[in-house]
């Protein structure tokens, strides 16, 4: 069975990330943030609550609580997935499977993240990977530090100069300045970047995703139902994923094997190549992940992406605009969920001053221990 | 600190890096695990590892994530490919300026928070750090 255009994204909803961030004292619940996004997505789709018969919750403590809050008493399909960034694409794949198999007709994907209110740090005593006990003994912790480990090796292998990541952080910020909803909208210069502190050297503060509160929701359904709604049609032309599952977030090939496998399958399924992609949304928990993604998916050769992304190529008006809403370092850290929504908005032509002209194909990429990618199209 | 394997800790206290080795296919693994990820056999032995490895990469941690860590920021953390195959996180003695991909390393033991754990030092063979790639 092919997934080709079998499912449409008909509704998207996001909270007001910037406004939420400016109120530093609030103590928000992930459920309320998810619920806000859900009601926004429902209105965006032009559907009624009772049209929804599937619910996938992410990063929410308990799906029964979320379902009860939303009045979804008897969905035919319901599950929870954890709040890891890799899971946003997986959630979309689950919804596709549920809709294609007939287990549900209209699935709401609801993500709520109160990380900032809860004081999340993504390191230290919190959680950790399979070897956390061994690694924390030395003070090794946080996904950023494991990505820094990869980048330190990458830059030695390919003789990458200092400040090579700065254009990625600046590109995200430039895009966020076109996004009223973004958290970080003040201009970011090379000098600002250079002066910023290290977190896990060689990564600096501006290489890191934000920690902020927010919610994102999407509603996926069949093209038949989508056709009855008065909205531009966005479908998922192809999707694929591959694990790269080890004891470390550090992949010893920078996720290249998993990316190559996913790239091959997603482009083959779609009958497309990188040349068909108008706009790219890349999971950027930390800026080096963008480099690993561009190389892994064949946009440029291994070891060259840091040079390839310079000089405006990935900016608005450039050859391949990347992370047009500001990405995780400037718009909002919604763990890939917000990037999915931006893909839809670009395909619908609703992105305002950051709109990519004639945007017909958007690729989403997440290079991580579950590497995944979709090709989304305006149908 | 979450629990570490007692056999591993006992080895470190006695000055040896102990690894599990599959009794069937002889592959070594880290951290401790009940079955072999290569051949799924459940029988294993604990061996004294050679203590040799190569630097895969390293970082310098600046953010003080831990309240009670027995190290002052900034401190280095290394990812080491052991001669027996597994990768492990550890730290490297001294100045980091000579560290390169493939730098040969030798295990030593240092107490962290009072618990002796494997640590690494650049191997003392002449010119090895420069030839390590």
Topology (SSEs and partners):
The complex is a heterodimer of chains A (379) and B (133).
Chain A: E1 8-14, H1 17-22, H2 30-45, E2 54-58, H3 63-70, E3 77-81, H4 87-101, E4 106-113, H5 132-136, H6 143-157, H7 166-176, H8 190-195, E5 198-201, E6 203-204, E7 214-221, H9 223-228, E8 234-243, H10 256-270, E9 279-282, H11 288-296, H12 305-308, H13 327-331, H14 337-348, E10 361-366, E11 370-378
Parallel strand pairs in A: 2-3, 2-4, 9-10
Antiparallel strand pairs in A: 1-7, 4-7, 5-6, 8-11, 10-11
Helix pairs in contact in A: 2-3, 10-11
Chain B: H1 6-13, E1 18-22, E2 28-29, E3 44-48, E4 52-61, E5 75-82, E6 87-90, E7 104-112, E8 115-122, H2 128-131
Antiparallel strand pairs in B: 1-2, 1-3, 4-5, 4-7, 5-6, 7-8
Give an account of the 3D structure.
The complex is a heterodimer of chains A (379) and B (133). Chain A has helices at 17-22, 30-45, 63-70, 87-101, 132-136, 143-157, 166-176, 190-195, 223-228, 256-270, 288-296, 305-308, 327-331, 337-348, and strands at residues 8-14, 54-58, 77-81, 106-113, 198-201, 203-204, 214-221, 234-243, 279-282, 361-366, 370-378. By secondary structure, chain A is α/β, with parallel strands linked by helices. Chain A has a 5-stranded mixed sheet with strand order 1-7-4-2-3, with helices on both faces. In chain A, strands 8-11-10-9 form a 4-stranded mixed sheet, sandwiched between helices. A two-stranded antiparallel ribbon of chain A has the order 5-6. Chain A is globular. Chain A starts with 7 loop residues before the first strand and ends with a strand. Chain B is mostly beta strands. In chain B, a hairpin with a 4-residue loop joins strand 5 (75-82) and strand 6. The termini of chain B are far apart. The model of chain B is unreliable at 126-133 (pLDDT under 50). The A-B interface holds A 121, 123-125, 128, 130-142, 145, 148-150, 152-153, 156-157, 197-202, 247-248, 250, 252 and B 1-4, 31, 56-63, 65-67, 69, 71, 74-75, 77, 79, 87-91, 100-101, 112-113, 115, 117.
């Amino acid at each position: 069975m092919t997934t080709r255009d079998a499912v449409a994204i008909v509704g998207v909803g996001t909270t007001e990330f910037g406004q939420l961030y400016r109120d530093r004292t609030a103590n928000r619940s992930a459920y309320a943030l998810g619920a806000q996004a859900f009601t926004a997505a429902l209105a965006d789709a032009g559907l009624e609550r009772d049209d929804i018969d599937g619910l996938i919750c992410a990063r929410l403590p308990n799906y029964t609580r979320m379902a009860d809050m939303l009045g979804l008493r008897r969905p035919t399909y319901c599950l929870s997935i954890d709040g890891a960034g890799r899971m946003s694409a997986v959630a979309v794949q689950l919804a596709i499977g549920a809709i294609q198999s007939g287990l549900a007709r209209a699935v709401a994907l609801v993500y709520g993240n109160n990380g900032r209110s809860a004081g999340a740090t993504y390191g230290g005593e919190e959680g950790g990977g399979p070897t956390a006990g061994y690694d924390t003994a030395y003070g090794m912790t946080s996904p950023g530090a494991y990505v820094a480990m990869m980048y330190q090796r990458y830059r030695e292998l390919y003789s990458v100069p200092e400040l090579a990541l700065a254009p990625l952080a600046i590109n995200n910020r430039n895009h966020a300045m076109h996004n009223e909803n973004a958290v970080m909208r003040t201009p970011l210069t090379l000098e600002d970047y250079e002066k910023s502190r290290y977190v896990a050297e060689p990564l600096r503060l501006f290489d890191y995703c934000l920690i902020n509160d927010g919610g994102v929701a999407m509603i996926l359904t069949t093209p038949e139902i989508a056709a009855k709604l008065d909205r531009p049609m966005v479908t998922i032309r192809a999707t694929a994923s591959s694990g790269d599952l080890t004891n470390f977030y550090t992949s010893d090939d920078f996720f290249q094997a998993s990316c190559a496998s996913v790239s091959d399958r997603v482009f083959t399924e779609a009958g497309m190549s990188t040349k068909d992609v108008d706009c790219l949304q890349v999971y950027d928990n930390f800026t080096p992940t963008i480099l690993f993604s561009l190389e892994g998916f064949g946009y440029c050769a291994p070891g060259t992406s840091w040079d390839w992304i310079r000089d405006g190529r990935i900016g608005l008006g450039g050859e391949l605009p990347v992370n047009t809403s500001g990405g995780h370092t400037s718009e909002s850290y919604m763990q890939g969920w917000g990037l999915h929504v931006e893909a839809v908005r670009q395909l619908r032509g609703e992105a305002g001053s950051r709109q990519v002209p004639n945007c017909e194909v958007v690729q989403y990429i997440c290079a991580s221990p579950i590497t995944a990618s979709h090709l989304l199209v305006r149908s | 600190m979450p629990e570490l394997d007692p056999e591993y800790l006992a080895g470190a206290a006695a000055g040896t890096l102990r690894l599990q080795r599959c009794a069937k296919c002889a592959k070594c693994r880290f951290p401790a695990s009940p079955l072999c990820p290569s051949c799924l056999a459940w029988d294993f032995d604990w061996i004294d590892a050679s203590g040799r490895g190569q630097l895969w990469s390293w970082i310098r941690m600046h953010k003080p994530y831990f309240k009670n860590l027995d190290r002052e920021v900034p401190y280095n953390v290394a990812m080491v490919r052991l001669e027996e195959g597994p990768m492990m996180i550890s730290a490297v003695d001294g100045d980091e300026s000579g560290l390169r991909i493939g730098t040969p390393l030798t295990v030593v033991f240092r107490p962290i928070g009072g618990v002796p754990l494997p640590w690494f030092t650049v191997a003392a063979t002449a010119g090895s750090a420069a030839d390590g790639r």
